[in-house]
Design a protein that fits this description.
Layout: H1 2-16, E1 29-32, E2 34-37, E3 42-50, E4 57-64, E5 69-76, E6 84-88, E7 95-101, E8 113-122, E9 129-137, E10 153-155, E11 157-161, E12 168-171, E13 178-182, E14 187-191, E15 204-207, E16 211-215, E17 227-231, E18 237-243, H2 257-269, H3 285-291, H4 301-311
Parallel strand pairs: 1-10, 2-11, 14-18
Antiparallel strand pairs: 1-3, 3-8, 4-7, 4-9, 5-8, 6-7, 9-11, 12-15, 13-14, 16-17, 17-18
Length: about 325
């Protein structure tokens, strides 16, 4: 018998030396969730109970680095059907208490899930990486209906501060748009619009707080003569492009007889054997550019024929410079 007791005690000593995790899988656990945010943004973090064995009260404390996180709000969630949830503590301290109790209940609560949600503001200078949000509980205040202490593990969460995306802009992948910069008039142009829906804003995407706007043409459209303006994250205009739909010099989004008339006028007022760009101003450039249907920088009968062919349904006017 003495040998058996000695062996049992030895086994207990060995087991006592094995390190235990803060929260083993499948064991009762108070946990904080994780979320991602950029510096200066707010983020919501859930506070949860898992594998609840049955309790009528608990007290947990949330701890965090106040130099990197500011608690802005705390709300209780409708997890427990009975009892009272009390959110306490100042938002300006590094700890925050959450108390739930059902002192008049005759049965243990066994619900699992999120019982509170905390809203944090991430400091604008917070470094990239995880900011821990830890949780602990009071053993004296966590018990079942028979007033027996219930043991819980804990699992910390974190606010992951993400790398702020570098700002920029581009035309959407596969858009087929073509840009042209004129040294003569000192501005830029974009062609390659869908001839059936010449909407330049459909082709643009921005990142990192950059944005864009389209100044519509005289027809309140995004066809020829509309201007695409790109803004950086500070709201500064950094790029400007005139919109061009070849075959639509008047910018109404339709290739028709009006465009033929405009082209005839332009042919008569520019040199047939000289690049037309030498004879136009910035304001005239989008219209004249759109009239140059074969993109040879000379306005002549060939361009007129391109419009005629499209109106007859024989051939569409190429909308980018490499489609001749």
């Amino acid at each position: 018998m003495k040998k058996l007791i000695s062996a049992f005690l030895a086994l207990m000593l060995v087991l006592a030396c094995i390190p235990l995790q803060a929260s083993a899988e499948g064991s009762p656990t108070f946990a904080v969730g994780t979320a991602e945010a950029l510096p200066g943004e707010t983020v919501e973090i859930p506070v949860m109970i898992e594998n609840n064995p049955g309790i009528i009260g608990f007290l947990v404390t949330i701890s965090f680095d106040t130099t990197l996180l500011t608690l802005q709000n705390a709300v209780s969630e409708s997890l427990f059907s009975e009892g009272t949830m009390t959110l306490g503590g100042s938002y300006e301290t590094a700890t925050y208490n959450i108390l739930w109790e059902n002192g008049t209940g005759s049965n243990n609560a066994t619900e699992n899930g999120t019982f509170a949600t905390l809203t944090f503001l991430v400091d604008a200078d917070a470094p990239v990486g995880d900011i821990p949000v830890s949780i602990s509980y009071s053993a004296k205040s966590t018990f079942d209906v028979d007033l027996n202490a219930v043991t819980f593990g804990t699992r910390a969460g974190a606010v992951t501060v993400a790398q702020e995306e570098e700002g920029g802009w581009s035309f959407t992948e596969g858009s087929g748009l073509y840009t042209y910069e004129s040294e003569i008039v000192g501005t830029q142009f974009v062609a390659g619009l869908d001839p059936f829906s010449p909407v330049i804003s459909d082709y643009v995407e921005t990142t990192g707080g950059w944005s864009f706007d389209v100044e519509l043409n005289d027809y309140d459209m995004e066809s020829t003569g509309a201007k695409l303006v790109i803004y950086d994250a500070d709201g500064n205009a950094v790029e400007e492009y005139w919109s061009v739909l070849f075959g639509d010099p008047n910018g109404d989004g339709i290739v028709d007889g009006t465009d033929q008339s405009i082209l005839s006028y332009l042919i008569q007022n520019t040199a047939l054997d000289e690049p037309w760009a030498d004879f136009v101003t910035t304001d005239e450039f989008p219209q004249t550019f759109a009239a140059d249907c074969n993109h040879d920088f000379i306005l002549d009968g060939t361009d007129y024929s391109f419009i005629v062919y499209q109106l007859q349904g024989r051939e569409m006017i190429p909308q980018t410079m490499d489609e001749e």
